[in-house]
Amino acid sequence: MVTRCNDNRVEGLDTKEGICTVQKYECNDFVDFGDFNCTAFISKNSDDIKLFELKDNTNGISVGNRVIFNRIIYDIQEKEDNVLKVIKNDFESSLLKFQDMGVSIERGIRVPVGKTLSPENDYYVDQWVAKWTRNIAKNYELILNGKSIQDLKDTCKDVPIVIVGAGPSLDKNIDELKGINAVIIATDRAYKPLLARGIEPDLVVSVDCHDDLILEYLNKVDSTNHTLILNSSADYQIARNWKGEILYFNMNHNGMQFCDRVLPYMFPNFMAVANAGCVVNTGVIIAGWLGCDTLILAGCDFSYPDKKMSCDTYDLVDNKFVKIEVDEEERFNKRSCKVLKNDIYTYPPFIDYAKTMEVLSKQQKINIINATEGGILDKFTLMTLKEAKEKYCNKDVSSYKMKLKKEK
C-alpha cells in the first residue's frame, strides 16, 4: 500500500504499525516502496537509474527485493552499505512477448468505462502486471492447451468439503483428516504437510504469482496422481514442475484491463475466478463451484497463534518426508506490520481476507464451519475438527472423489 504525500513531509516511518510512506522531493518525483521494511530511496540519476541510495541504512532490504521508482520496477542486484545497485525489471520485455502474440496492453490500466484507477491501485497494478505478464509469456502454449476447471461444476453437490490451510493450528488436528468422508481441497502451502502425514488431497489450489516462494511448497514430490487448480497468471515454474493434472482458471480483478479484457481474450475457455485476496478464499469460491453447501475449514488461522507463523514445514530428503526445524521466534520477529485482533497477533491483510470470506459465504450460500481450532475467524460456527467430522462427514464420498478424477 502506498501513501502519497502532498508536500515534503515524511509520514509514518514506523512500519511496525503497518504504514508505508512516500516522500516528495524537489524534483517532483515520488519514491515508492516494495513490500519490505525501509525508509526512503533517493535516485542518483533519474534518466538512467543504476543506483539507489537509502536515506537511512536499513538491514531489512536485501538482494532479491524490488523497488518501484516512477512506476518502473527495479530488482536489487547488490547492496553495499546504504547504496543499492539495481537493474530494471523485465516488464518491457514481457510486454513485447505479448505484442508478438497479437495482444496489446495499455500502460496505465484503465477500467472499461475509461475511469482511471486510484493512484494507489494504479501503482499496485503496474507492479503486479509485470509478474502476470512474464508468467504467462513464459508458459503461453502450455496454458493455452491446458484444461479448465469449468467442467467441475456441481460435481460435489451435497458433499462436505474441507479446505486445508497451512496455519499454525493445523498441527493440532491434521490427523483427523485421515480417512475423512469429505473432499479435501489443500492450499499449496498445506500440500506437503498433508502428504507427510499420509493424507491425499483431492484438489490442490495455487494462485500466487511470486516466483521466490510458492514453488517450494509443491516441488520435489510425486504429484502424478494429484490435481492442481492453478491461476493462469501464477508463477510459471509451478506448471513446469507439476506432474499431475492441471486445471486452469483466469483471475478476475474487477476494473483491471489485464483481467477484464486481456485474459478472456487469451484464454476464452477458462472460467474467471474473483481475486479474493488469498488462496483460502479462492478455495471457498471453488468449493461453491463444485456445489458444496457445507464447508469445513482446517488450518485457516489467518493469524499467528502463540506467535507461530505456520504449521510445521516438511520437505523430501532421500525420498522421505522430514520435518524442517525453523526458528519460530526469528520468523515471528521478522514479520512487520503485526497487529492484535482478539488478543492474537495477525497481519492487517488477513483481517480483510476474513471479511471477504464472510461475503463469499453469503453470496454462495455456503455454511462454513470453522474447525481450525485457533486464529481470528469468529463469524462462523466453531467446532473442533473431530466434532465437525462426526456431524457432517458420515457418508461415503468415494464415488464423488472418483467423479472428480473422471471429470478432469
Q: What would you note in describing this structure?
A:
Helix content is 29%, strand content 22%. By secondary structure, it is an alpha/beta fold. It has three domains: 15-88, no CATH class; 91-138; 147-407, no CATH class. The strands form five sheets. Strands 8, 9, 10, 11, 12, 13, 14, 15, 20 and 21 form a ten-stranded parallel β-sheet that branches. It has a five-stranded antiparallel β-sheet with strand order 3-4-7-6-5. β18 and β19 (344-346) form a beta hairpin. α1 crosses α2 and α9 (279-289) packs parallel to α11. The longest helix is centred in the N-terminal third of the chain and has 20 residues, at 119-138.
How many domains make up the coordinates? Answer: 3
Strands, total number: 21
Strand percentage, roughly?
A: 15-25%
Quickly count the helices. 13
Helix- and strand-based class?
alpha/beta
Output the radius of gyration.
Answer: 22 Å
* Biggest β-sheet strands, sense, barrel: 10 strands, parallel
Query: What's the pLDDT, averaged over the residues?
Result: 78
Give the proportion of residues in helices: 25-40%
Unreliable sequence segments: 1-46, 105-120
Give keywords.
10-stranded parallel sheet, 5-stranded antiparallel sheet, 408 residues, alpha/beta, 29% helix, globular, disordered N terminus
